[in-house]
Amino acid sequence: MLKRAFSISKSIPITISDKAWIKMNDVLKHNNYVAFLFSAKSGGCNGFNYKLETIDKTQFDDLYNAKILPTLINNDNCNLIIDPSSEMLLFGTSIDYIKEDYTKNIFESKFIFTPKKELVTTCGCGVSFTPKSLV
Protein backbone atom coordinates (compact mmCIF):
# COMPACT_ATOMS: atom_id res chain seq x y z
CA MET A 1 0.00 0.00 0.00
CA LEU A 2 1.25 3.47 -0.85
CA LYS A 3 0.31 6.59 1.04
CA ARG A 4 1.42 9.69 -0.77
CA ALA A 5 1.12 13.16 0.63
CA PHE A 6 3.84 14.66 -1.57
CA SER A 7 5.72 13.08 -4.43
CA ILE A 8 7.36 13.70 -7.77
CA SER A 9 5.39 10.89 -9.36
CA LYS A 10 1.94 9.36 -9.43
CA SER A 11 3.47 5.86 -9.40
CA ILE A 12 5.41 4.15 -6.63
CA PRO A 13 8.87 5.74 -6.82
CA ILE A 14 10.83 2.62 -5.76
CA THR A 15 10.34 -1.15 -5.79
CA ILE A 16 10.98 -3.46 -2.87
CA SER A 17 11.39 -7.22 -3.28
CA ASP A 18 9.51 -9.72 -1.12
CA LYS A 19 12.84 -10.80 0.44
CA ALA A 20 13.58 -7.19 1.44
CA TRP A 21 10.10 -6.74 2.95
CA ILE A 22 10.51 -9.96 4.95
CA LYS A 23 13.87 -8.83 6.33
CA MET A 24 12.64 -5.31 7.13
CA ASN A 25 9.58 -6.73 8.88
CA ASP A 26 11.82 -9.05 10.90
CA VAL A 27 14.08 -6.15 11.94
CA LEU A 28 11.12 -4.02 13.05
CA LYS A 29 9.45 -6.89 14.87
CA HIS A 30 12.54 -7.63 16.99
CA ASN A 31 13.48 -4.04 17.82
CA ASN A 32 11.93 -0.85 19.13
CA TYR A 33 11.52 0.78 15.69
CA VAL A 34 8.36 1.54 13.70
CA ALA A 35 9.67 2.15 10.18
CA PHE A 36 12.60 2.39 7.81
CA LEU A 37 13.74 5.68 6.29
CA PHE A 38 15.23 5.46 2.79
CA SER A 39 17.32 8.43 1.70
CA ALA A 40 20.29 9.56 -0.35
CA LYS A 41 23.20 11.29 1.35
CA SER A 42 26.08 13.08 -0.30
CA GLY A 43 29.36 11.19 -0.26
CA GLY A 44 30.85 8.01 -1.50
CA CYS A 45 32.96 7.46 -4.59
CA ASN A 46 30.18 8.49 -6.98
CA GLY A 47 28.46 11.50 -5.38
CA PHE A 48 25.61 10.01 -3.33
CA ASN A 49 25.16 7.01 -1.04
CA TYR A 50 21.99 5.03 -0.41
CA LYS A 51 20.94 5.11 3.23
CA LEU A 52 18.40 2.74 4.77
CA GLU A 53 17.93 3.24 8.49
CA THR A 54 15.43 2.36 11.19
CA ILE A 55 13.44 5.08 12.91
CA ASP A 56 11.46 5.11 16.15
CA LYS A 57 7.96 6.48 16.82
CA THR A 58 9.21 9.99 17.67
CA GLN A 59 11.22 10.24 14.43
CA PHE A 60 8.26 8.87 12.46
CA ASP A 61 5.91 11.46 14.00
CA ASP A 62 8.40 14.27 13.33
CA LEU A 63 8.47 13.35 9.63
CA TYR A 64 4.67 13.49 9.47
CA ASN A 65 4.52 16.85 11.25
CA ALA A 66 6.88 18.45 8.71
CA LYS A 67 5.68 20.84 6.01
CA ILE A 68 6.47 18.39 3.21
CA LEU A 69 5.07 14.97 3.99
CA PRO A 70 7.09 11.96 2.85
CA THR A 71 5.97 9.04 0.73
CA LEU A 72 5.03 6.04 2.89
CA ILE A 73 5.03 2.51 1.46
CA ASN A 74 3.50 -0.21 3.63
CA ASN A 75 3.56 -4.00 3.38
CA ASP A 76 2.10 -6.21 6.15
CA ASN A 77 2.52 -3.56 8.86
CA CYS A 78 6.08 -2.84 7.73
CA ASN A 79 6.57 0.83 6.85
CA LEU A 80 9.19 2.39 4.60
CA ILE A 81 9.36 6.17 4.31
CA ILE A 82 11.14 7.85 1.43
CA ASP A 83 12.85 11.05 2.51
CA PRO A 84 11.14 13.87 0.55
CA SER A 85 14.42 15.65 -0.15
CA SER A 86 15.85 12.42 -1.62
CA GLU A 87 12.85 11.06 -3.53
CA MET A 88 13.88 12.55 -6.86
CA LEU A 89 17.34 10.99 -6.52
CA LEU A 90 15.95 7.59 -5.48
CA PHE A 91 13.25 7.37 -8.16
CA GLY A 92 13.43 4.02 -9.94
CA THR A 93 15.61 2.32 -7.31
CA SER A 94 14.93 -1.31 -6.38
CA ILE A 95 15.69 -2.67 -2.92
CA ASP A 96 16.43 -6.37 -2.50
CA TYR A 97 17.91 -8.48 0.28
CA ILE A 98 20.40 -11.30 -0.22
CA LYS A 99 21.39 -13.89 2.36
CA GLU A 100 24.86 -15.22 2.90
CA ASP A 101 25.43 -18.30 0.72
CA TYR A 102 29.00 -19.55 0.41
CA THR A 103 28.04 -21.94 -2.40
CA LYS A 104 27.13 -18.89 -4.52
CA ASN A 105 30.11 -16.82 -3.32
CA ILE A 106 27.84 -14.53 -1.29
CA PHE A 107 29.80 -13.90 1.90
CA GLU A 108 27.46 -11.54 3.73
CA SER A 109 23.75 -10.87 4.11
CA LYS A 110 22.76 -7.38 3.03
CA PHE A 111 20.31 -5.07 1.34
CA ILE A 112 21.09 -4.44 -2.32
CA PHE A 113 20.16 -1.18 -4.06
CA THR A 114 19.76 -1.27 -7.82
CA PRO A 115 19.13 2.03 -9.57
CA LYS A 116 17.32 2.57 -12.84
CA LYS A 117 20.24 2.67 -15.32
CA GLU A 118 18.61 5.38 -17.44
CA LEU A 119 18.62 7.76 -14.47
CA VAL A 120 21.94 7.21 -12.67
CA THR A 121 25.47 5.89 -13.02
CA THR A 122 27.05 3.71 -10.35
CA CYS A 123 30.40 2.32 -9.37
CA GLY A 124 31.31 -1.16 -8.23
CA CYS A 125 30.60 -0.62 -4.53
CA GLY A 126 26.81 -0.87 -4.96
CA VAL A 127 25.97 1.93 -2.53
CA SER A 128 27.18 4.98 -4.43
CA PHE A 129 25.57 6.68 -7.43
CA THR A 130 25.41 9.87 -9.51
CA PRO A 131 22.27 11.15 -11.25
CA LYS A 132 22.62 11.39 -15.03
CA SER A 133 21.97 14.64 -16.80
CA LEU A 134 18.60 14.28 -18.49
CA VAL A 135 19.07 17.23 -20.84
Describe the structure.
The chain is an alpha+beta fold and 135 residues long. It has one domain (2-131): HesB-like domain (Hypothetical Protein Aq_1857, Chain: A, Sandwich), CATH 2.60.300.12. It has helices spanning 18-29, 57-64, 87-90, and strands at 2-4, 15-16, 35-42, 48-55, 71-75, 78-82, 94-98, 110-114, 120-122, 128-131. Strands 1-5-6-3-4-10-9 form a seven-stranded mixed sheet. Strand 5 and strand 6 (78-82) form a beta hairpin. The longest helix is centred in the first third of the chain and has 12 residues, at 18-29. The model is unreliable at 1-9 (pLDDT under 50).
Quickly describe the structure.
The chain has three helices and ten strands; from the N terminus they run ββαββαββαββββ.
